[in-house]
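Quarterly update from the structural biology core.
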Amino acid sequence: MIITKQKTPDDILKVLADKKNVFIVGCGDCAATCKTGGEPEVKAMAGVLKAHGKEVAGFVVPETACVAAQIKTAFAKNRAALKASDAILVLACGSGVQCTKDNDRLGLDVFPGCDSLFAALVNPDGSFREVCSTCGECVLDLTGGICPVTRCSKSLRNGPCGGSIKGKCEVDRDRDCAWILIYEQLKTKGRLDVMKNIMAPRDYRKSLKPAKDIRV
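Predicted structure, tokenized:
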């Protein structure tokens, strides 16, 4: 799940200042869950743009905005509306924005309507919890399923820094120390011996940006 936050109307109107006709692309997956780019949010944004003198030529909310085939199909069905547009506003994550740009055959200006924040789990109460940094070198088998790269404020891979107090992180006293959580989890599973292993420094070649295209 990619967590997004919708940009303010002022920020969006600023980038669309010289654009008259706008086509909006939403996302029925992550952005819909975040309530930043589902159909209700797309329609609300259309209302905002119209209230500020913009024409909304049309909109689409593909099931997943970062899947090229879905964007291509949506654009094929809305070619006339796209031809009448000066720009495309994408209410989705950065991947959705770039997928839209790559599959727009008319060469329109494509603008993001959301900021991408992090990859997360959806908690039972509907809140979002960052749990993975997509570092390319997963060590969850050694840490009881708790990612130290993400959940430790210092991304330490070989135990705590020593600054925690009563189980709380020295950087953020409202946050549990990730390594104490890891210790307690491994203890529960009878696997504390795993903590004797020394992890090698991260191989940053595995998380070079941009990553090489892969096929799964």
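The first strand starts at residue 2 and ends at 6.
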